[in-house]
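Hey team,

Sharing the DNA repair protein RadA run so nobody has to redo it. Sequence (175 residues) first:
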Amino acid sequence: MTNIPVFLIGHVTKTGDIAGPRVLEHIVDVVLYMEGERCLSHRLLRSAKNRFGSTDELGVFEMSEHGLQAVLNPSEMFLTEHDSDSEILAGLAVAVVLDGSRTFAIEVQALSVPGSLGQGKVVGTKSKRVEMIISVLMKQAGLKLQDNVIYLNVVSGFELSETAGDLAIAASICS
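Structure output:
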């Protein structure tokens, strides 16, 4: 009635749910999640509920001296700089994924260490999914990865959940 927006800020639990009673989600028109890694300068603004429009939107912002600024080409953030003739390109692959209504080019980095003891680490996607891709590479491509420790990283803290990224995960491990 007064045409003044009201912001209610809630806490998100480890499982990604809004803490407290579910009534908070039901009384508001829009639920937004601000995501991002603590040590990185960019944040993702994701819509989980929108009573008046689409929830298939994702905003990418970067913290600057003037506050949060919209990032015009977010794919540049998710790719690292390399020379095309560099040997450093081994273990890198790029996936083009759809998040909301936007496409992003996401870099996947992998390191396979033969004969190493310990357990690998997966950052940016589910480790069970990576284990399944490694099993497929061993069975179908004949790669001998059983004695290797594999480290996998999705650049810039992006959470790779779309299956379109599976080929990039496989390619980065193979290379």
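DSSP finds four helices and eight strands in the chain.

Ping me if you want the raw files.
A.
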